[in-house]
Amino acid sequence: MQDRYWGMPPDKNRALMHTKRMMPEFVCDAVNLEGLNFTIPEIQTLLDGITVGGHKISDQQVALNQAEAWRYIFSLIEDNNFKVDIPTVNEIHKIAAKEDAMTWGKFRDGIVTIAGTPYTPPTAGQLAEQFNLMLSSAVEYRDVYDRAIHYFLVMARNQFYHDVNKRTGRFVMNGFLLQNGFPGINIPAKRKLEFNTLMLEFYETNSQGPMNQFIRSCLDTRIIEDMKIHPR
Known about the structure:
The chain is mainly α. The chain has one domain (about 10-50, about 55-230): Fido-like domain (Fic-like fold, Orthogonal Bundle). It contains eleven helices and no strands. It has helices at about 10-20, 25-35, 40-45, 55-80, 85-95, 125-140, 145-160, 165-180, 190-205, 210-215, 220-230. Helix 2 (about 25-35) packs across helix 4 (about 55-80), helix 5 (about 85-95) packs across helix 8 (about 165-180) and helix 6 packs antiparallel against helix 7. The radius of gyration is 17 Å and the shape is globular.
């Protein structure tokens, strides 16, 4: 696939390099978006195998789960095995949501609601069909970032799991980008209010445009320029 928005050439090795370097930031921002107030130095300390004071063990485990999910995705990318399918997505959720969600590694078996919106996600019996619809509708997007963001948004809106849906959706979005040779996108915690506001609007309208533009605005312009001036 192609990046038709910025005109970046695909380069899997370079995209992986950028995303691996940013992994502590990805992890830190992901947990802060969930209300767990870690700093990047604290995350780096955790990734070095050392616990940090002032945080519950369960909160530290959430952060470690995110790092482990990233490592799993990196291994899939390096072996050219990343796929957007139910087994792969379930495995990502199994790692990212371990002991954090009601169940992990399988689609939910009950109803869920989303705070702040009257929108109700599909019933458990509809989830497999909705996942397949997500895949079939994705082919309409010819731009790699449009398709990747589509995966994230549809996963978030359908709430395939009891919890850890947005985090899993972002892993899928970024895994798809990396597999196709493009750098992943981090959502900065400092933009949490904007992110949450736009997500609530998206849940109700199912219009991807505003969230698509927001997510694109989170990609570091320095990375874009580096990808463009160092074509493979």
